[in-house]
Amino acid sequence: MMAKQILILYYSQGGSTKAIAEKIAQGVEQSGLDAILRTVPNISANCEKTKSDIPESGAIYVTKEDIRNCDGIILGSPTRFGNMAAPLKYFIDTTSDLWFEGTLINKPAAFFTSTASLHGGQESTLISMMLPLLHHGAVIVGIPYSESALQNTLTGGTPYGLSHFDGINSDKPLSRDEIQLAKALGKRVGEVAKALNTGNTDL
Predict the structure, then answer these.
(1) Which helix or strand (DSSP H or E) is residue 100 part of?
(2) Suppose 109 and one of 86, 92, 138, 163 were both cysteines; which one would form an S-S bond, judging by CB atoms 3.0 to 4.6 Å apart?
(3) Are 166 and 116 spatial neighbours (Cβ–Cβ below 8 Å)?
(4) Angle at CA of residue 162, ends 161 and 168, nearest 5°
């Protein structure tokens, strides 16, 4: 059975993480697979329901079926004290049923983040998203140093996944290197998904 689609699941508050997701989606499509963009709802200490089941704009909310139907997954979140944001963590914490089913075993997984400061916890945030996917049995995909932008970047970009330096006022656009790395990551996940589905390990 051939690989068909990569799920790009992200939480974005100011728009930067969403912008990265869209560039990664372009890379996925360069691999010949479909990119499925999904987000998660905000969470609140208020116990009453305050959010619609459908977002006002942007990607629709993720469902468990989106994960069951994907051939690979790419998670994205802004950093919160060196960790993924609570809304994404909240959703991931509800996926025990998928873990029991082995839904993500041997499917590629990659990660992206955005930070207000250059050394604001980019790599630890990427690792925080990586840990539950290791438990799910996913195959972790990073960015190799064969990507020249990874060696040239003066803003974001790590071997752990794509990162973006957004600035203290959340107003810095994606740099040329960050865009190149975002597309490279998406394409690589697509290529790995196809290889894993066909048994081809010549990556």
Answers:
(1) helix 96-101
(2) 138
(3) yes
(4) 130
